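Annotated sample (chain length 491).
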Amino acid sequence: MDANAFSLGPRKAVTTIAAMPLRTPAEYRAAVSADGRALFYQGRKVDDILAEPELRVAVDHAAIDYAVAEDPAHRDLAVTVDPATGREHSAYYKVPRSTEDLLARSALIELCTGLGGTMVTLIKEIGSDGCFALLRALDGEALERATAFLRHCQDGDLAVAVAQTDVKGDRSKGPSEQEDPDRYVRVVDEGPDGIVVRGAKCHTSISANADEIIVLPTRAMGPNDADYAVSFAVPANANGLSMYISSYGAGDRDPWDFPLSSRHKMLETLTVFDDVFVPWERVFLCREPEKAGDLALRFVEYHRFTAVSYKLPLLDLLVGSAALVAQMNGVIKAGHIRDKLTQLVIYAETVRALTHMAAQRAIVDERGQAYPDPLTTNLAKYTFATQYHEAIERVQDCAGGLLVTGPGAQDWASPDVRPVLEKYFGAAAPASERLPVMNLIADLTARDFGGYHAVLAVHAEGSIEAEKMQIFRSYDAAGPIAYAKRLVGLD
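Output written by the structure step:
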């Protein structure tokens, strides 16, 4: 059946953006505003993401990735020059060729996340992870298409999301075994002009405010799953594509009460493909189940390195805020507080050391493309994930119960109430300094922004079990086994 047999309505032309100067934050905002993308939020359709204050926060946060390229203090890190063409483009889209390239990438991710108040911007980080995975996993005409798409992202200075996690349905069954065949994204038709896809992805970060969305397989697949072995890229306003934005973290937020989440937010969507047409030049994998698992794994190798890089400012803030509030409470010299601060330092610096070590141990493939050492990357991610909740407990113990019993912004603004608060909430530091720090820690650890971070620690970029599996697969036990044999004379 030809793709044209589907009643899809008028199709938007797919164009490749000509090379242009790097986009400004204002140009990025304009590009994602009222362009026909189908967004739904809190049960209603949203025609312009910038017109919704709760969603506009996420767009403004994401614009950090564009602002750093204009900042003379960060331009050398944020912008690179293509040696083949002499054109400038975002350093996020520089294909890594060495340890130095990976370390620079990690530093850029850490910088932007730090500017984002511990919330990663992700609009170029994850998209470039997806592009790099395509370059490593594909060959032939598919590789040419992936290379052209990367150039499209570089030349247009685009924001790019990755939709990988299918909704999955019954986890005990594979894609083709599901009661509802749309629980995984699949090819429903193929013709001379392209393919038509249907299904849904979930946990799709920054898709609502991206220019493009790369779709990748979520898992290895067998012969019966051929229709589900698909990878492609579509613009965020493609016909038939709808995004349902999570309302987690919704509501007005006074900056005094919510110093982080009032200014920094990342949108997550259920991303539904309802007979979306994809031209062949944007199809990277089609009905090739033998390649699905490898492509999924190549993405994870880059994206978990991105993950541990963007966790570093969060870990620094856990250490810094715990130490600061302990000083303000007058308990910094207490033995148990010093022990907690020491454990926080050990945690933060262990993850940082493993992150840098993953780049130091970089592997360069036969095409000259570098990727971080999978073993060390997963060690870093596992260490972060398994110790995060204990670290939160330590920070909260240093702070005290005022995290959840303290006054609100309206109390602090009241001329009648504020003198009372200043009198009774002063400690080793005045209430005017101590209470904002309490709110910082509460926003980070005790309120919904803290809950968001806590769930991300366990599930984002792969579960703890997935990291353990990859650690086991990546570890080369031949040397240690040979050593053991030698010591008992079995060699």
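Annotation: Residues 259 and 440 are 6 Å apart (CA to CA).
Annotation: Residues 1-18 have pLDDT under 50 and may be disordered.
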